[in-house]
Predict the structure.
Amino acid sequence: YSNSNPLVIYDLTAGLARDTLIILTSSFAADALSTSNSDPMPVKVHMVERDPIVAALVNDAMRRLKLLATTIERAESNSAQTVEMISDTERTIAQKLLQCLTIEESDATTSLERLSSMTASQFAPSS
């Protein structure tokens, strides 16, 4: 892999993304979660889940991650409304995770057939 062509891993049995998170936090991807925004992620993980309910749960988790990544720190507006503060580090990590995660609802066989018909330059999932 290189900065322009990251390693793309396909998790064809995504489930609740446990294996995906292990891959991202493993030793070869640990540097990718640094708080520096200057370097792109060296690893991308494309999750494939066939169960529509499980895929919906993971999509919701991705939606929440996006909210975390785009949340702006703000002070508590009044005593009736408590706004949880998000640190810059947490926001940066969420942004980095979003750069390297994608999910599709499909089965492994269909995804592999689609991948086998693609050229090498097309393997990376679109964001």
The mean pLDDT is 78. The longest strand covers residues 43-49. The beta strands are 7-11, 43-49, 101-105.
